[in-house]
Specification:
The chain has about 325 residues and is of the alpha/beta class. The chain contains 10 helices and 8 strands.
Amino acid sequence: MCFVIAMIGLVLSFNFFMADNLLGAAGSFVVAMFFIFLMIRNIQSVQNLKKRKKKEKMIIDTHIHLDDKRYDEDLDEVLNRAREGGVKRFIIPGADPSTLDKAVRISESNKDVYFAVGVHPYDMDNFDSLNFEEYVMHEKCVAIGECGLDYFRLEGSDEEKEAEKSRQKDIFIAQIELAKKYKKPMIIHIRDASHDSKELLLKHNAGEVGGVLHCYNADEELLSLAKEGFYFGIGGVLTFKNAKKLVNVLPKISQERLIIETDGPYLTPMPHRGERNEPLYTTFVAEKMSELLELPLKVIKETSTVNALKLFNIS
């Protein structure tokens, strides 16, 4: 609009000048110059906005179950809200083989979404039927997992519990070997099984590929895994009132080993606890980390993003 009015002003100015109407020519010229000034200022404003956006620090949600049915009805809205809020990359962990194809489709439809292939301890009965090679070579596959050990729900007699543990260990070891074979980092799930998990990771040289301790459980026994190439995934639990253990151990983790996650739709951070979790809420995790570590928010965002890009080899 400014351009059109400026051009009309210049034409009128020229016509007035040719008709020896100097006053009209001068007035039209001033009007034209005013709108040209506005046009230039608007262009500069847009350019400055673009520069500011480039400088804004982004967040990567390194663990978000976008293939969960609770996102079926509004997945695009969930992703767009996150993008507008500064979350620019998303990684879907492979937990349940039955939804893996769905995760692949989501990653193929969104250039900023990636996926991993793996079997969660609760779904280990599906391990033998999963064709890892079919998925691990996909260009959007960035990791193996989520896999690991979970002793929280062990049931039955002592013999049955030990058999369950043994089976979990076998499947975990198999996925460690797959990660090394295909040179993919690991997304590791550990619950009530820190010692056994660490032992297997060290014994089977999982440090060759490294990975992330998803939803880090604040067990200090695991901190030394940082020296083996492992990162610590921090999510909404950090904002909970009963997260004193995690709050206390957070400063003991090197900044170069911290990454951010939601584990959505689970573990929603305050002030949205009780609602469905979503990638946008990584901002609350970043803010809490900033507060506890007494670091600028932009430093938390930048450091965690650099760490995630490096670990998962994405750009």
